[in-house]
Design goal:
173 residues; mainly alpha; Four Helix Bundle (Hemerythrin (Met), subunit A); two-stranded antiparallel ribbon; 7 helices; 4 strands; globular
Length: 173
């Protein structure tokens, strides 16, 4: 399955921005700009929270703020690595993962450590993605669930994903 495109122009090129599960969250913004802005907003929003603030969820039965931060750090690590592997491994096929099983493996990571990891890996990813040429961003790889996707699709997904979870943390605040 090839992922579709929306009628929003990507500011990096004249291509149409790809449609991802988080397209609505990104709302047509440039993904690199959104990436950098969202990382700064995470720091500003939760930087002064008390330990008990991180235990709250945005709705009954949903992840706590700490778990959201752990999840975000995991995604930055996993999908940033996926992009790097796709760019350096001919015929790369992404390995899907189960986010709940990942979360279960990080049950003792503290909220401050998760925030630090998110901000550090996010900054690394933002610089990495900003350094890519249009040809790099157009490179495709295979994903068992999504089919052929591009680095640009992955970037748009990651930027929208950050915004999606930022809104959850804002609800907790």
């Amino acid at each position: 399955m090839v992922i579709g495109f929306v009628s929003v122009r990507d500011s990096v090129s004249s291509r149409m921005a790809p449609t991802t599960p988080y397209t609505e969250d990104l709302a047509g913004r440039d993904p690199i700009d959104a990436f950098r802005d969202t990382l700064a907003r995470f720091r500003a929003l939760v930087g002064a929270w008390s330990p008990s603030d991180f235990d709250r969820g945005y709705a009954p039965g949903k992840w706590s703020a700490r778990q959201i931060l752990v999840h975000l750090a995991q995604i930055e690590l996993g999908l940033g690595t996926r992009a790097r592997l796709a760019l350096t491994t001919p015929g790369y096929v992404a390995q899907p993962f189960d986010q709940d099983r990942w979360m279960a493996r990080e049950g003792t990571l503290g909220a401050r450590e998760a925030l630090d990891a998110l901000l550090a890996i996010g900054a690394m990813n933002a610089a990495f993605f900003a350094s890519l040429s249009p040809a790099d961003r157009a490179l495709t790889f295979s994903h068992p669930e999504y089919g052929a996707i591009s680095i640009d699709w992955l970037l748009h997904q990651m930027a929208g994903h950050q915004i999606h979870h930022l809104r959850q943390l804002e609800r907790i605040a």
